[in-house]
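ok trying this again, last paste got cut off
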Amino acid sequence: MRDGEEFKLHLIPSGILYAAKTCVIGNGVVVDPHILFGEIDALRTRGIAVDNLRVSGNAHLIMPYHLLLDGAAEKKLGKFKIGTTGRGIGPCYVDKFARLGIRLQDVLDEKILRRKIRTSLDEKNWLLQRYDIGTLDPDQVTDELLGYRERLEPFICDASLLVAQALDQDKHVLFEGAQGTLLDIDFGTYPFVTSSNPIAGGACAGAGVGPTRIDHVVGVAKAYTTRVGEGPFPTELFDETGVTMCEVGHEFGTTTGRQRRCGWLDLVALRYAVRLSGITHLAITKLDVLTGLGTLKVCTKYRAGGKLHEEFPLLQTDFHHAKPVLQELRGWDEDIRDCETWQDLPEAARDYVQFIAEFTKTRVKFIATGPGRDETIILPRSIGRGGAV
C-alpha cells in the first residue's frame, strides 16, 4: 500500500515503488514473460517507472508446456492435490534441475533457443499426449518467446555481479523473499510446498551472493497464521473468528485470489522459522486484525502420536496429525491503526508482541498496525532478548 493505493506484485520486487532504487529479479526466480510484462505495463499505467528493473540472465523461464503440465498433474492427483497456483512453477523447476530448462539469456541466441525448446518438447509432448492435451509445435513456441526478445533484452543482467558491486560500494542491499518456511521444498510440510528454498539461505543461491555478505535477517510474520492451498494446519479456525480474520485481513491469495485459511498464531512453527533462517529481527504484521476478537490464543506445543512436541516435529507424519496446545492471552478492543509508538499500543497488544519475542527468542523490530506505509511502528530498540523500549 502506497499513498492509499494497493499494489499487488508477483515477480517484481516491491522496491520498484521507490524510483531511486535498482530492483533485481534473481536467478532463483522462475519467470513467466507474459506475467512479467503484464506487471510492467500495469505499473507504467499507474505512473510507476520500471527503468530501474533488472532480471538475471540465469533465471529460468516458465514455458507454455509448464502451465499445461501443472494443471494436468493437479487434476490427476484429485483429492490428493497439492494446491499449486497453477502457474507452471513446479514443472519449470523440474526442468531446471533436469537441465532441460530455458533460461532468460537463451532468448538472445535464436539457434540455441530453438534447439533447447525442441529437445524439451521431445519429452513434454509425450507427457501432454498422455494427459490427453495434445502436442505443441516447437517452432511456434520458440517464435512466441522470441517475440519478447526486444522487450526483455534491456532488463537482462548478471545479477550476481550487480549485487556484488553494490555491496563493494557499501550500498544497502535488501533481499526480498516470497513464500514461507513451511513451504520450503526441504523443510516445509512436504509435499504441500513450493519447489524452491524460500528460507533465508535461499537468498544466497537465488541471488548469487555469499552467506558472509548478509548482515541481518528480518522474518516477516503475521500476528496470526494463514495458509493458501492444501496441507496440514494445526491452528486453523473454522468458526466465526477465522471468518473475521479472513475478512478483516483481506486474506485472499495475491496470485490466485483464493481465500486463505486462517488460524491462531503458531509459535512453534514461527520458532522453527527463526532457527532455520537465522532470523535476527521479526516484523509482526496485521496486528490490527486481532483487535476486538476477545481472548487470543497462540500455539505453544503440538500433541501428536501420543506425545507433546515443543519443537517442530522431525517426522512430517506427526505434523500432519498434530493438534495444537493453545495458551490464552488477553485481547484488546482499542483501535490501534493510529498508534505511532510502542507506548501508544494497548497494554494487551504490547504483551502479545512481547510474548512472541520471548517464545521465539528473537527481537521484534517492526510492528504493522495497518496496510499503509505510515502504519508501521519502527521500534528504536528491539523487543525481546533483553531489548525494551
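PB: full thing came through this time. DSSP finds twelve helices and 15 strands in the chain.
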